[in-house]
Write a structure and sequence with these properties.
Blueprint (H helix, E strand, L loop, with lengths): L7 E10 L4 E6 L12 E4 L2 E9 L2 E6 L1 H6 L10 E6 L18 E11 L2 E7 L13 E4 L2 E8 L3 E6 L1 H6 L10 E6 L1 H9 L9 H6 L4
Antiparallel strand pairs: 1-2, 1-6, 2-5, 3-4, 3-6, 4-5, 7-8, 7-12, 8-11, 9-10, 9-12, 10-11
């Protein structure tokens, strides 16, 4: 389990690519401090298991399903990545519940600077749109963010300067792909809704005691 609060930006040191899999080695400073073989670390929002560590580097195996359903296959040597260790049981919880199980990839439609914020619209597959609502939560490349607008096929996030400085999102551009994990609670609630209902909205959440 993660919080979506990125601890540091690491660098891809090496990639050993198979036909549909990969061994990924990351250079970093902070998340490696207490990392052990078998620990979980989120890389761009994808929960992966540490298989090797040496000095300031750790390696993970990326299986075919992960290669197919996330943006990790686009990484190259030197690519920057968001990193977060799994949440400690006694740690402070500051973001939202993030599992590290990516629901799909989105495409950045536009990025606009507005005073101290950067507004970013991200297009996502139609089957994910039911999980987005104003002021809801989403993880973009593992970063916990708030949804500030929802259109027919996209949602908007706003980066404050701290988030822009501490993650890789602001370095992207329109057309870039990002990993999307929808709000875990929204997914559980949606699963409980009767098939004939259209989806989650604010009135449904209020009627059922979620707001």
């Amino acid at each position: 389990m993660f919080t979506g609060l990125i601890e540091e930006v690491g660098t891809v040191h090496n990639l050993q690519k198979g036909k549909n899999s990969m061994i990924l080695t990351i250079d970093c400073a902070k998340v490696i401090e207490d990392a052990k073989i078998g620990d979980s670390i989120s890389i761009n929002g994808v929960c992966l298991t540490v298989t090797e560590r040496a000095g300031k580097q750790f390696s993970v195996d990326v299986m075919p399903e992960t290669m197919k359903s996330t943006t990790l296959h686009e990484l190259k040597k030197g690519s920057k990545v968001n990193l977060e260790r799994a949440m400690a049981a006694g740690g402070r919880f500051g973001g939202h519940f993030v599992s590290g199980h990516v629901d799909g990839t989105g495409t950045i439609q536009s990025m606009k600077k507005e005073e101290n914020a950067i507004y970013i619209y991200i297009q996502v597959p139609s089957d994910l749109m039911k999980y987005f609502m104003m002021k809801g939560s989403v993880a973009v490349d593992g970063t916990s963010l708030t949804v500030f607008d929802v259109t027919r096929d996209a949602f908007m996030i706003s980066l404050i300067p701290q988030t822009a400085d501490d993650t890789i999102i602001a370095s992207k551009s329109p057309g870039s792909k990002v990993n999307i994990e929808c709000d875990m609670i929204a997914k559980y609630v949606q699963n409980l809704i009767q098939p004939e209902q259209k989806g989650i909205d604010e009135s449904y959440l209020r009627e059922n005691g979620f707001m």
